[in-house]
Amino acid sequence: MRTWFITGTSRGFGREMTEILLGRGDRVAATLRDPSRLDELADRHTDRLWRAELDVTDTARMREVVRRAFADLGRIDVVVSNAGHGLIGLAEELTDEQIRRQLDTNVTAPIQLVRAVTPHLREQGGGRILQTSSMGGHIAYPALSLYHASKWAIEGFFEAYAQEVEPFGIRTTLIEPGMVATGFYASADVAPSELAAYAGTQAAAFTHGESSVALRDMPGDPRKVAQAMIRIGVHADPPRRQLLGSDAYRLVHDALHARLSAVRAQRPIAMTTDRDDLTAAGA
Description:
alpha/beta; Rossmann fold; two-stranded parallel ribbon; 10 helices; 9 strands; 46% helix; oxidoreductase; oxidoreductase activity
């Protein structure tokens, strides 16, 4: 029996993972804004479901919840940083509050969660951290600039953090799903897109949903994504990144291939900027 700590368990991947893990006999420390949304699961799994109210943007509260979870449960094997927030809108029209909320939820909160759990995981001799990211941490679409900024930021953080903590037996994986039929899109914050200057542009079409994929046509199955995340959480040698979904694999593969080609084209100018004395010494 393993013990999992999961944020954002009211819906989506977090809820699916909680149900699957409890069903197979594991323990789950589930955090969410309204713990009563898990009452049904609590009735069926009283001894294995630990709940706590948590708004992940409240850092002080998060540290206290993490402290209590480790104190009450003794050991946590896998931490799943899953809570997130979507924001759709042209960069020019987003409000300061929308920008702040996006970065607080998708960047600062995961960083603070990791900072809170690291000492506990190190002291117990290791553990796993899964961070929900997105294929949007590699590619970008108009009208999603701040969402992509948050995902690219958290990918950079984990690229460095993973190297810091692997000597302590702490392994991390960025989970990068494609388009999945969840309630995430319906709950996303959408800016009004009333700037006439953008009328008829691709960016405006994305903002109004004219270029988006209908929920019924999204290829990802949320329960299958949750099952894959669980497999990665218990994998003997987990990858630092894991794409999930045929669309994620195809789009990221093509984007990285194009980026590598662009890098190769930059070589002639890139090689002209080294210091002459170092170039001569290495000749």
